[in-house]
Amino acid sequence: MIATQFRVRDLMTDHIIKVTPNHSFTELCRLLFQLSIHHLPVVDEQEKLIGIISSNDILQTYGSKVAG
User: Fold this and answer.
1) Which of 41, 35, 38, 40 has its CA nearest to residue 59?
2) pTM
């Protein structure tokens, strides 16, 4: 299969868009929507990865508040 010849480096992007815990909710949603992406890495002040936030995380959090 051709797919087995690919490596992660062949598919990944090196232009990383990231957020910090201090980004606003509005800015986070704008980035996800405008860039048509579903996940963003969250980094601390030293650019160390501390988590990943997804559009699904937002839907689960705010969906439960709307339903409850």
Assistant:
1) 38
2) 0.76
The span from the CA of 30 to the CA of 6, in Å, is 32
CA distance 53 to 25: 11
User: From start to end of the chain, where are the E strands?
Assistant: 39-43, 49-54
Q: What are phi and psi of 49, to 5 degrees?
A: -65, 125
Instruction: For residue 19, give the 3-state DSSP assignment.
Output: strand
Instruction: Quickly count: other Cβ atoms within 10 Å of residue 55's Cβ.
Output: 15
- The pLDDT tens digits of the residues spanning 2-46 come to 667 888 888 888 889 999 999 998 999 999 999 999 999 999 999
25 with 55: CB under 8 angstroms?
no
